Amino acid sequence: MILDKGTIVANRYKVHLAIGSGSFGSVYRVHDLTNKDWKAMKVVKKMEAINESYIGERRMLEELRGVRGVPVLHDFYENGPYEYLILDLYIGDLETLRLKPLKPKTVMKVAIEITKILKDIHGKGFLHRDLKSANCMIPYNQRNEKLILIDYNVGVKFGVPKNPRTQSLRRLPIPTRDFAFHKCIYSALRAGEGTGCQETEDLEQLIYLLMETRDIFPFYGTAEEFAQQKKDFRQEPASFLTQSNVFLYPVIDVILKQEYGVRPDYRKILKVMRFNGYIINENAPFEVKTSSTGKPYIE
């Protein structure tokens, strides 16, 4: 669905311009005529529930409200087959803000922040399943957050919390082959094979994201070819890294050793990320600079 500039939604949100689009919908910069603020409005088509695990992006955001690193759903409207989600605007994503390979120290800060977000999302019983640099946003720091993980279109509910203190879960059946993961270069291997995803698949995508921030793109060709490449990577990940990128190996190794279908050892994963030879201030936001052409970037 395409909205023209000047369109007013729900007698409140005036469309200014389109700022993004994808297979699941479009995103617009809108002016809130009530409080004079600027917001993002995501327009998505309603999808049929596959089973109790797939509840759609709007309900996921509602159930994850207050979780660090998850977008705030300020408002939503329904109109026929479409949902309009009112969200925050961001400075940019890790794909467009990267002018060249990120410095190792920045990469490890990204690793730590995303792992903490995944830990909390998983603890609530949800999987993201679409982790990539374009879905990791640098915020304007309204809530003192460092990164925001967006786009829960293919996210699923994989568990119901049994004990909030320990974050133990009663696991639910996960849909398989519900999306064309086998055609997606950055999807986890099991997702592409049609095996139900678990926390380990989100973490596997984190590996690929970190490699991407260093301009490492090891998978290519047909779906069958990059599926085999992912199998080869799991067997010998070090062979895919150049000398300047071997700092990633301990992180890759600890993630790939996590057991499928069992809650990951996030404490161990974060320890490996933190003890990497770099002094990382986890309380500080990412430093966003401005190029000579006026483009924001991080390094």
TrEMBL record:
SUPFAM superfamilies for this protein: Protein kinase-like (PK-like)
UniProt xrefs under PROSITE patterns: PROTEIN_KINASE_ATP (PS00107), PROTEIN_KINASE_DOM (PS50011), PROTEIN_KINASE_ST (PS00108)
InterPro entries: CK1_Ser-Thr_kinase, Kinase-like_dom_sf, Prot_kinase_dom, Protein_kinase_ATP_BS, Ser/Thr_kinase_AS
Lineage: Eukaryota, Metazoa, Ecdysozoa, Nematoda, Chromadorea
Recorded family membership: Belongs to the protein kinase superfamily.
The entry's keywords: ATP-binding, Kinase, Nucleotide-binding, Serine/threonine-protein kinase, Transferase
Pfam family, one: Pkinase
Entry protein name: non-specific serine/threonine protein kinase
EC number: 2.7.11.1
Top-level division of the source organism's lineage: Eukaryota
Top EC class for this record: transferase
UniProt entry tagged with the keyword Nucleotide-binding: yes
Annotated positions binding ATP: K46
Positions of the Protein kinase domain: 13-279
